[in-house]
Write a structure and sequence with these properties.
298 residues; nine-stranded parallel beta sheet; two-stranded parallel sheet; 14% strand; alpha/beta; 46% helix; TIM Barrel
């Protein structure tokens, strides 16, 4: 029987244990270039050795993008963070899931999201589309306990609770995490993403954060969520106010970074997926920063 019928706690408990309290979110670990497989495998092995429980692959990856990381590790959980339902037909996603599951049982998580109207011309009735997608995954045998949803609003969070192992929200605050936990209840996994700038100077840190946030400030799914959280249109203007930047990006010295991460756990997160905004825009595998984060969180 598909575990969509089991309780949220039963579905989520193995996944919570597997991913632990901290993971890394990275688009650099997702590559279609065969020449980079060795570099990615080496980085994955070190990530596991550093004690991170999970890696979340950015850029709407498929299950196949998890293979180099899973093959190079023995315990690390690898998740899509997040695969757009418009990029893969449900039957195709299920087939790819089955292939990775056969090779690496229990270590791959299918993270799903509805993307944005400005990103894909297929965007339509996102909630209904996600329900239909989950129905198709159920029919294909993909366990609900091995998928999470990129839920921001209440309806999608409820769907994460009822039809998945939990939620992996992107670009949120501790306040959103507390609200999400209230909706999810105690059982489901709550694994927010958090951007990190390892820079103590406020001007430089916020400038780097704004450079990354500029794209997201054009996407209503995020801006609407921030407005629901009490930010104003002024906070969304001119690259984002200091108040907004400081709420969605952790920056500063080690103590400040640790305090920011701890705030998500205190608000109800089980796991925090940390995305390092590197000093070098061309450095998509910021391994020294990952090491520093592991030390300060250890």
């Amino acid at each position: 029987m598909n575990d969509v019928t089991t309780s949220a706690t039963d579905r989520s408990a193995p996944l919570k244990e597997a991913v632990g309290r901290y993971g890394l979110w990275s688009i650099g670990l997702r590559s279609e270039d065969p020449a980079r497989r060795g570099e990615i495998a080496e980085a994955a092995a070190e990530i596991e050795e550093l004690g991170y429980g999970a890696v979340w692959l950015g850029g709407s990856p498929g299950a196949e993008h998890a293979e180099p990381l899973l093959g190079a590790t023995t315990r690390l959980t690898v998740a899509t963070g997040i695969q757009s339902i418009w990029d893969y037909e449900a039957q195709d996603a299920a087939r790819r899931f089955a292939g990775v599951e056969a090779a690496h049982p229990g270590r791959f998580v299918l993270g799903l999201g509805v993307s944005h109207a400005k990103v894909t011309d297929q965007y339509r009735r996102p909630y209904s589309a996600m329900v239909g997608y989950l129905d198709a995954l159920d029919a294909a045998g993909v366990p609900a306990g091995r998928r999470v949803l990129a839920a921001l609003g209440p309806k999608m969070l409820e769907l994460s609770r009822d039809r998945a192992a939990g939620s992996h929200p992107y670009l949120v605050t501790p306040e959103h995490t507390a609200q999400a936990r209230d909706i999810l209840g105690d059982g489901p996994l709550l694994a927010p993403e958090l951007k990190v700038v390892l820079e103590a100077d406020p001007e430089r840190a916020r400038a780097k954060a704004r450079a990354y946030l500029s794209f997201y400030l054009e996407l209503p799914n995020y801006t609407d969520n921030w407005l629901r959280l009490g930010f104003t249109e002024d906070d969304l203007a001119d690259g984002g106010s200091d108040r907004l930047v400081d709420a969605v990006v952790a920056w500063g010295d080690d103590d400040r970074i640790r305090t920011a991460v701890d705030a998500f756990h205190a608000a109800g997160a089980d796991h925090v997926a940390l995305q390092v905004l590197s000093d070098d825009p061309q450095e998509d595998l910021p391994r020294e920063e990952w090491r520093r984060l592991a030390r300060l969180l250890g």
